[in-house]
Every structure is written in C-alpha cells, then in structure tokens.
Amino acid sequence: MSPSSSSQVAPLAPVKPLQDHRPGSSHGSGRAKSGSALAVAFCENGAGYGGAVISLEALLEKLPSDFVPHIYTGLAIDPYPRLARLGRWRHLRAVRVLSQQWLRERRIPAASAIDNLVNVLPTALGYYWRFKRDGIGLVYLNNDASCNLAAALGARMAGLPMVLHARGFNVDTRGNRWVLSQLRHCIPVSTAVREELLTLGLAPEKCTVVAEGLDLDAFSPRAPLPGLRASLGIADDEPVVTLVGGLVDWKGQDVLLDAAPRILQRYPRAHLLLVGGAYGKDRAFADEIARRAAAPALHGRVRLLGMRDDVPDILALSNIVLHASTKPEPFGRTFLEGMALGKAVIASNEGGPLDVIEDGVDGLLIPPRDPGRLADAVLRLLDQPGFAAALGNRAAVKARDYSIERHTEAICAVLHRVMRGDPPPAHANV
Q1: Quick one: 242 and 385 in the same domain?
Q2: Residues 174 and 235 reside in one and the same domain
Q3: Average pLDDT of 287-313?
Q4: Which of 109, 72, 103, 104 lies closest to 87, judged by CA?
Q5: Using CA atoms, how far apart are residues 90 and 69, in angstroms rounded to an integer?
Q6: pLDDT digits over 168-213, tens only?
C-alpha cells in the first residue's frame, strides 16, 4: 500500500522483541497445543509504517485467543520489530536479484516475467518454507494484492487458504488478478475499495466490507490536555485547524497551504497544524511543504509538528480536523478520529469518507483538489461555531459504531467462516 490514510503516529515505546515465542503458540498443524487455536500468518508488505500497519496493530491488540498470530513483515526498521509483543514476528526480506527497471531500460523481453522468476519466486519460497515450519493454518494478507504477491504464491504452494484485508486500491495487473483469484475471501475497508475489486473479477460473494475501527478510549470527546496549547505556542482563544497525514503528494497539505491565505486573512490568529512526517525515500514533497510553510506571507501560522505520539491530544485541542486527500482514500482513519473526538470534520467527497460522513449532518464533504472550496468550508465552521459544535456532537455519536472491538469481531467472524467453509452472509457489509 502506498502511504496510508491513517494518522502518522510516532513509534511505540521500546519493547523486547519476541521473535520466536508467544505464550500458548507451538509448531504443528496450524493449531496450538490446546487443539483449538488457529495459527494465522499475518503478512504485511507495504511501503512503510502507515495506516495499514497501524490498523493491523490495532486488530492484533484485540485478537481473541482462538487465533495464534504469526506476523511476517517485509520491513524490519522501527517500529516493525515491536509487533513482536503481539505475536511471533519475523522479517521476511524480499529478494532483489535484478531490477525490473534495469530490465525495461534495456528493452529485455518479458521483463515482468523475469522479475517474477528471479525476484518474486525466491521470496515466495521463503514464505512457503516459513508457513510450513510454523504450522500455519490460514494466511491473512494485509494491504493490497500487489505487495503480497510473494506471500500469496507461498500460501498457494503450501495449499493454505488466503484472506486479503484490502486496505488499499488495486491496479489492474495480471499479478493482482491472480492473487484475487486465489482468495477464499476479501475484506475491503470501504465500498469504494469493494467496487474496484469487483471490476478486477472478484466475485461479490467473496467480499465483506468491514470499516476500520478505533480505540474509543483514546479517541473520545474530552477537554484539551492542560498545558499542551501553551507548549505549542497557541493561546486559548486562537482557532486551530489540523491536518494529520504523512507528507506525501496526495495527502493534501499543499491544498491547505493554497487555501491558507484566505483563511488567515479573516482569522489572522488561527493556527494550521500539519501532523506527520516524510514517507519513504522521497522527501521532495515534504521539503517543499516545509519551504512553503515558512513563507513570510503565512506569518508563522502554519506549523509542521512531524510525527507525534499524542495525536488524540492534538486533535482534542483543534477546532477543525481536515482530511484533504487529493486521491480517493481506501478509508481514511484521520477523519474518523476527528469525528470520534467530537470535532467538526471536513473531508474529501470520494473514497472512504462517503461511507461514514453525511454532509452537513456530522461533517462536511468537499471536492478534493479545490483550495477555494476548502477555504470556504473552514471559514464557514469558524464563522458559525454553533453549527460546528453540532456537527461535532453528531459525529461523536456516529463514531461510536466504529470501535476496534466491533471491527475485530467482524474480521474474526470472516476468518472463522472461511475455515469452516460456510457460505457468505446475505448482507456483506459490516
């Protein structure tokens, strides 16, 4: 998955990696020694630590004891090893013998096939060997189909059932269509993701939409943390507009900066907070946002806070929470986090937000990539604090339906159904 919709959360507190042990787990036929717990391979091979990993982590936190998690990640940088506290964690590094770009630059025929043979197949064999050694009974692919091709091949060679938790969109490639064709079931995070999967040939009866879930103990309406505004240099009477997301070129920070002059013209004491850091190897966009935010014309009212481990507290002191993505989000955790905290939320009117927000009732939906409409929406909420408060109150009520407990229960129901071979339910949305 590309940089995700989720909040950019700082790494967890250090814990001792438990790479080869989780109480109650064992090698064997996919069951723990009690004979009742199923060994599940949770495979995460995205581009970096973003929303898909944060969501997986939240799911694993609540996973019941009838599943024994084995966690395989393609990356081993912090904070991936810290997933070891939630299961038996292993780093399965992707094999890269040849560069597909190198093959294409030299116009070598069948570059994609050669890449699969030389790079993907050895990685798939690694998964196969690990699945067999660890006694896996079910393979859970986290993210999109493309990043999990090797894991899917390994599962197919091992004869294991597969479930894809589709937290991202999937492009139309032969590899993606093959992965989708091998699934026992797919769990898209939104209607938008489901519709795309159907165009790629996935049968409707193999799709169950399960919206993302939040820890509602962390994300619930409350007063701002005492002293936090002061520590950020924000007075109690100064309005705060916050956008949480990685500094990548489709999260919309540039759109907010385009809208900033109009917002600050009417509210010169407002603060625009950008929470999140650069994502992946390319820092060009992040550097450009930092340069623009420092422009004298913005009078120091735009703040880049970087990665934070106190996102709920930052949102709690905010007047408005923005989701300004310029591409459809598979879901988009940040708008839901703002809703759960009882904030007035503005979100792009495509992708995941369409499943949750009722425009003008519990949030505002605006066209993406339109700084003028974004400025209009922000000014409307700042001009009408009573309307903004009403939106936030109704948003908090709706967000109670999106708990991580309910989310986990729905995911586990799908996994149990797959293992029993039960037919899908009549209504495949949760």
Answers
A1: yes
A2: no
A3: 95
A4: 72
A5: 11
A6: 999 898 889 999 999 999 999 999 999 999 999 999 999 999 999 9
The DSSP 8-state label assigned to residue 12 in this structure reads: P
Which structure tokens are listed for 372?
A: 């003028």
- Compute, in degrees rounded to 10, the torsion defined by CA atoms 403, 407, 413, 415: -150
Q: Are residues 393 and 415 in the same domain?
A: no
Distance CA 355, CA 195 (A): 13
DSSP string, 107-145: T-TTHHHHHIIIIIHHHHHHHHHHHHHTT--EEEEEE-S
Q: Domain range spanning residue 141?
A: 38-213+404-420
pLDDT of the residue at 427: 52
Residue 32 forms part of a structural domain: no
pLDDT at 114: 56
- Residues 165, 250, single domain; the answer is no
Same domain for 395 and 415, yes or no, is no
- Alpha-carbon span 373 to 132, nearest angstrom: 54
- Among 87, 11, 94, CA closest to 47: 94
- What 3-state DSSP class applies to 322? strand
**Neighbouring C-beta atoms of residue 192, cutoff 10 Å:** 21
In this structure, the number of other CB atoms found within 10 A of the CB of residue 403 comes to: 18
Angle between helices 284-293 and 253-266 (to 10 degrees): 10
Instruction: Classify 11 as helix, strand or coil.
Output: coil
Say if residue 270 is in the same domain as residue 130. Answer: no
Q: How many domains does the chain have?
A: 2
Q: Do 295 and 186 share a structural domain?
A: no
Burial call 155-165: b when 16+ CB within 10 Å, e when fewer: bbbbebbbbbb
Contact yes or no for 8/244 (Cβ under 8 A): yes
- Does residue 181 lie within any of the structural domains? yes
